[in-house]
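This follows on from our talk about sequence and fold. Go ahead and set the record down below:
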Amino acid sequence: MTRRKAMELETLKGRITRLDADSVDRLYGLEPVYEPGADRAPSLAPEEFVAVRCPWCGERLETRVDMTANDVAYIEDCEVCCRPIELNIERGDGGALLSVAVRRLD
């Protein structure tokens, strides 16, 4: 093997060993995905289940709050009366769930 080819091989080997996850994603044309713990404290779960009371029928419901989304409010239908409920999410500085407020959509 010539000296030039050996140097090119070493350069390529160095570039391959320094690939990070973002470089690999760009190389293969992959879209970014949620990586647990990448942007928040490792102790936080990607989702939390909370109990709320339907403002229409008063039934207790358990709903899932997606902690990976940046939405502060979303609409969900009551499992019992099928009426729309607006859920407002409040988070702390570290991203932890502080409260969930519900209200009727009239």
In short: Residues 1-33 form one domain. The chain has a mean pLDDT of 82. The beta strands are 47-53, 60-66, 73-77, 84-91, 97-104. The first strand starts at residue 47 and ends at 53.
